């Protein structure tokens, strides 16, 4: 009998290994979650990376962060953080200010508009995650979180 993933992918042949099935299952689940979250954010003209930046900068508070620190904290790495921040600054969600002592250092902060938007999204995003993951027990979710952390560890 094929696994749930094999059936979902309409795959007739068995996976070559449990490792292959696990990797494909992670990728498939990430794609499903990604699609649902992207659709929810599209209504607010945001990408997941932009939403992530807003959450990062909200957490940073009034001090803000430099571009490199924002990039290091992103869930999914993007090839050009500067362009991402440029687009967000153009829409008024963030502001950037050069340092007075070191002009090379640019501090990025969330604007009032950005803060209002990310605050407005808190409840709908919680509800979306509940819809997507609420049927899974806390024990199973903890096992997933711990298992994925083990996958991300360097051997």
* Total count of helical runs of at least 4 residues: 7
- At CATH level 2, the architecture of the largest domain is Orthogonal Bundle
Query: Structural class given helices, strands, pairing?
Result: mainly alpha
How far do the termini sit from each other? Answer: 33 Å
Q: What is the tally of beta strands?
A: 3
What is the CATH superfamily label of the largest domain?
Winged helix-like DNA-binding domain superfamily/Winged helix DNA-binding domain
What is the N-to-C succession of helices and strands? HHHEHHEEHH
Give structural notes:
The protein has 155 residues and is mostly helical. It has two domains: 1-43; 45-132, Arc Repressor Mutant, subunit A, CATH 1.10.10. Helix content is 63%, strand content 8%. The chain has helices at residues 4-8, 18-42, 48-60, 67-73, 81-90, 112-133, 138-152; strands spanning 65-66, 94-98, 106-110. A three-stranded antiparallel beta sheet has the order 1-3-2. Helix 2 crosses helix 6. The longest helix has 25 residues, at 18-42. The protein is elongated. The mean pLDDT is 92.
């Amino acid at each position: 009998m094929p696994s749930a993933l094999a059936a979902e992918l309409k795959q007739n042949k068995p996976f070559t290994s449990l490792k292959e099935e696990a990797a494909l299952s992670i990728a498939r689940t990430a794609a499903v979650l990604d699609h649902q979250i992207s659709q929810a954010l599209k209504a607010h003209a945001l990408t997941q990376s932009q939403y992530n930046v807003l959450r990062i900068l909200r957490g940073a508070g009034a001090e803000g962060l430099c571009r490199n620190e924002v990039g290091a904290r992103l869930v999914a790495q993007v090839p050009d953080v500067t362009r991402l921040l440029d687009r967000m600054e153009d829409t008024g969600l963030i502001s950037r200010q050069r340092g007075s002592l070191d002009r090379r250092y640019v501090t990025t902060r969330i604007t009032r508009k950005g803060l209002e938007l990310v605050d407005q999204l808190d409840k709908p995003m919680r509800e979306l995650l509940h819809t997507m993951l609420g049927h899974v027990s806390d024990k199973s979710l903890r096992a997933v979180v711990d298992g994925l952390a083990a996958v991300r560890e360097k051997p």
